[in-house]
């Protein structure tokens, strides 16, 4: 079974998930002064890659379909 199809990554909610279902949040772009993402809530935590992963592994994690949070994604969340 391929890693892309397995629940091998931890989300901000603490659950294991597939890379395809997670977004990586660039804290320097989408977070407040305390490092908390603007869009992080109880409702969105399951869709974000855990902050436990060090920055040096993000490129490798991206290879199993984790995508970066984008301004478009934030706009779409506000529309919900």
Q: What would you say this structure looks like, in words?
A:
This protein is an alpha+beta fold and 80 residues long. The chain has one domain (3-78). The protein contains three helices and four strands, in the order βββααβα. It has helices spanning 27-30, 58-62, 71-78, and strands at 9-10, 16-17, 23-24, 67-68. The strands form two sheets. The protein has a two-stranded antiparallel ribbon. β1 (9-10) and β2 (16-17) form a beta hairpin.
Blueprint of the fold:
Layout: E1 9-10, E2 16-17, E3 23-24, H1 27-30, H2 58-62, E4 67-68, H3 71-78
Parallel strand pairs: 3-4
Antiparallel strand pairs: 1-2
In a few lines, what is going on in this structure?
By secondary structure, the chain is of the alpha+beta class. It has helices at 27-30, 58-62, 71-78; strands at residues 9-10, 16-17, 23-24, 67-68. It contains three helices and four strands.
């Amino acid at each position: 079974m391929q890693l892309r199809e397995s629940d091998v990554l931890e989300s901000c909610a603490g659950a294991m998930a597939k890379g395809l279902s997670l977004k990586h949040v660039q804290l320097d772009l989408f977070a407040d002064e305390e490092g908390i993402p603007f869009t992080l809530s109880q409702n969105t935590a399951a869709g974000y890659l855990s902050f436990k992963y060090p920055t040096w592994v993000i490129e490798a994690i991206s290879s199993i379909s984790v995508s970066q949070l984008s301004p478009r994604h934030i706009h779409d969340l506000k529309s919900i």
